[in-house]
Amino acid sequence: MTDDETLRERFRENASGIAATTVTGIWLAALLADFGWWLPFMLFGYVVIVPVVSMLFDDEEPESVHVESESGSVRVERGEAAERDDRRSEDTTDALERLRTRYADGDLTDEQFERKLDRLLETETPEDAAEWVERERAAGEVERER
Question: 89 in helix, strand or coil?
Answer without folding.
Answer: helix
